[in-house]
């Protein structure tokens, strides 16, 4: 009998790798499917429901009409790499060699996994701030690295900042630490890491000879006068940082799948090898449009941030009125909330109720934590939506309070 049971359980795993059994499908993307099933307003997944800028769409059409329809150079079209290097110099004062230090990938998602696959050996540890963008968990598993989490703690008072404990961070670094993954401005918390915090992380990276892999995809979405500081711009970090970014969020084209990794030549060579055999290259015409996008004037970025500030300030009061406690985001386009007031068993039960009975899709907080219990009282909403969409959500959320 024991033999039969063991062969049955082996059959369940038949053909599957051990790695793939260690993580689930994305909860965020699942919530989008749920929103479609129940016809709910989708404040779950972080994609805009409004139009992408006309000049970028025109540039993509022109590239296709101009027959830029074959493979681009594996590590990225020259025009786009030049534009990325120019922008990093302009915005962060970081000088980058577009020939040797940039790899254009299929979204920053591919840039992150390529970077991890390029640098991690089995058993290496990767420090991750928690709550974290959910991809970093599976990314670590797939690259053979062991994640080590450091808590970001929510503010005690309204309008306060998410913080981490310096001692806890130091304790996470040791001999087998290969990299720290940083995401600023941060998804899901909206935290924008300060210079002092980044310097603290920098000092540990230098002391323990650790690489920083920084996801800066929300670099232009900032509120209340906060400033984005690139890790690579800090003294001592240029040679030990891989900066990840992309078109998705800054230019409202999440479906285009164009992102990039920027790092020192030796690491870039390794990333390019992984990227080449994973995907060969990102969409060629959209890379040409990317070069046009990255040449937009400074006012474009001001309008982008202001547009999101207006959306943030439209959604948060509605959430507060409905009974959520909101942790004010300083950057990115999400708000993490506390759902204690609703008395539900946990975040998953609550988001199920929300999508099915109230008609609003959100993401359960537990999907941003290793231990589901840590996120059991939290739910994340995305506000990268038209004001009409946010108003429709607000009206539905009113039902939570019976109005
Ligand atoms: C922090 C963070 N990194 C990366 C991504 C995915 O970016 P891309 O569309 O460039 O793959 C997201 C999308 O939500 C994100 O929030």
Strand content range: 5-15%
SSE order, one letter for each helix or strand: HHEHHEHEHEHEHEEEHHHEEHEEEH
Describe the sheet with the most strands. 7 strands, mixed
Chemical compounds bound to the protein: pyridoxal-5'-phosphate
Helix content: 40-55%
Beta strand count: 13
Give the integer mean of the pLDDT values: 94
Sequence-ordered SSE layout with sheet pairings:
Blueprint: H1 2-12, H2 27-38, E1 41-42, H3 54-65, H4 78-92, E2 102-105, H5 107-119, E3 125-130, H6 136-142, E4 146-151, H7 166-172, E5 177-183, H8 195-208, E6 211-215, E7 241-246, E8 259-262, H9 265-279, H10 284-293, H11 298-322, E9 325-327, E10 334-338, H12 347-358, E11 360-361, E12 363-364, E13 378-382, H13 387-397
Parallel strand pairs: 1-11, 3-4, 3-5, 5-6, 6-7
Antiparallel strand pairs: 2-8, 7-8, 9-10, 10-13, 12-13
Helix pairs in contact: 3-10, 4-10, 5-6, 5-9, 11-13
Report on the architecture of this protein.
With 403 residues, the protein is an alpha/beta fold. Helices cover 41% and strands 14% of the residues. It is built from 13 helices and 13 strands. It has helices at 2-12, 27-38, 54-65, 78-92, 107-119, 136-142, 166-172, 195-208, 265-279, 284-293, 298-322, 347-358, 387-397; strands at residues 41-42, 102-105, 125-130, 146-151, 177-183, 211-215, 241-246, 259-262, 325-327, 334-338, 360-361, 363-364, 378-382. The protein has a seven-stranded mixed β-sheet with strand order 2-8-7-6-5-3-4, with helices on both faces. It has a four-stranded antiparallel β-sheet with strand order 9-10-13-12. A two-stranded parallel sheet has the order 1-11. It is globular, with a radius of gyration of 21 Å. It binds pyridoxal-5'-phosphate (PLP). Pyridoxal-5'-phosphate binds next to helix 5.
């Amino acid at each position: 009998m024991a033999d039969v049971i063991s062969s049955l359980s082996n059959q369940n795993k038949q053909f599957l790798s051990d790695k793939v059994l260690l993580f689930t499908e994305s909860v965020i993307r699942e919530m989008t499917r749920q929103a479609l099933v129940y016809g709910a307003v989708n404040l779950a997944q972080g994609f805009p429901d409004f139009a992408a800028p006309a000049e970028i769409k025109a540039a993509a059409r022109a590239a296709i009409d101009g027959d830029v329809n074959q493979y681009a150079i594996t590590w990225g079209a020259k025009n786009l790499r030049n534009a990325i290097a120019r922008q990093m110099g302009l915005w962060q004062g970081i000088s980058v060699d577009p020939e040797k230090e940039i790899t254009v990938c299929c979204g920053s998602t591919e840039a992150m996994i390529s970077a991890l696959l390029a640098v991690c050996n089995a058993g290496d540890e990767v420090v991750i701030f928690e709550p974290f963008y959910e991809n970093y968990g599976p990314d670590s598993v797939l690259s053979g690295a062991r994640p080590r989490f450091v808590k970001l703690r929510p503010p005690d008072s309204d309008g306060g900042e998410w913080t981490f404990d310096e001692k806890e961070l130091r304790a996470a670094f040791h001999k087998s630490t290969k990299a720290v993954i940083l995401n600023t401005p941060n998804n899901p918390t909206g935290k924008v890491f300060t210079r002092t915090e980044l310097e603290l992380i920098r000092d540990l990276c230098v002391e323990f000879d650790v690489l920083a892999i920084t996801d800066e995809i929300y670099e232009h979405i900032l509120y209340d006068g906060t400033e984005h500081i690139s890790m690579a711009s800090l003294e001592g970090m240029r040679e030990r940082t891989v900066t990840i970014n992309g078109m998705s969020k800054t230019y409202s084209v999440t479906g285009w799948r164009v992102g990039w990794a920027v790092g020192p030549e030796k690491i870039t060579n390794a990333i390019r090898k992984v990227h080449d055999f994973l995907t060969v290259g990102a969409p060629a015409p959209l890379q040409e449009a990317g070069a046009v996008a990255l040449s937009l004037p400074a006012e474009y970025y001001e309008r982008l941030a202001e547009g999101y500030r207006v959306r943030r300030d439209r959604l948060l009061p509605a959430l507060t009125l409905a009974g959520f406690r909101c942790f004010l985001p300083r950057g990115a386009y999400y708000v993490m909330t506390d759902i204690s007031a609703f008395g539900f068993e946990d975040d998953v039960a609550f988001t199920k109720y929300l999508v099915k009975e109230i008609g609003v899709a959100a993401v359960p907080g537990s999907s941003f934590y290793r231990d589901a219990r840590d996120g059991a009282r939290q739910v994340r909403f995305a506000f990268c939506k038209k004001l009409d969409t946010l108003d429709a959500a607000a009206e539905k959320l009113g039902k939570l309070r019976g109005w």
